[in-house]
Amino acid sequence: VEFQVEDQPHFGFTNFSRHGVVFEGKRYPTGEHLFQAFKFIDYRPQIADHIRTFSDLPRIARMEAHKLQAEQRVDWKEVKIEKMELMLYLKFTQHEELIEELVSTGDAELIENSDTDSFWGDGPDGHGRNEFGKALERLRVYLQGG
Questions:
Q1: Residue 146 pLDDT more than 90?
Q2: Residues 6+ apart with CB under 8 A from 47
Q3: CATH architecture assigned to 2-143
Q4: For the chain, which residues make up each domain, given as ranges?
Q5: Rounded to two decimals, what is the model's pTM?
């Protein structure tokens, strides 16, 4: 099951879907906002708040985090998969329709079809790590009681 494009099936799985996420009492406009804020939230909370509130657009949240990359937590590479899993858990458990959609995929492989990202997606050659898809598959197993 491939996903990535707005107005196509399973776009809700992506961080760019308009499903707000609440974390520690604060609402983030999208999963992407929370994921980007996780880079700063424990060490530079004012930057995390800036990312949360600067714009409702997820691509802007990503751009702001990238501009402030020098300020992000030093262990980000070690914790980014764990933080992605946490964001996905929060997003899906706060939106029942997403749980139903995810569980309805059965045991199908979930692939973030990205022509630019070989870590989170399948990359330009279709052979990327697809860590985002794998994180969704782990969440699906958990939600199915596995």
A1: no
A2: 40, 68, 71
A3: Orthogonal Bundle (1.10)
A4: 2-143
A5: 0.94
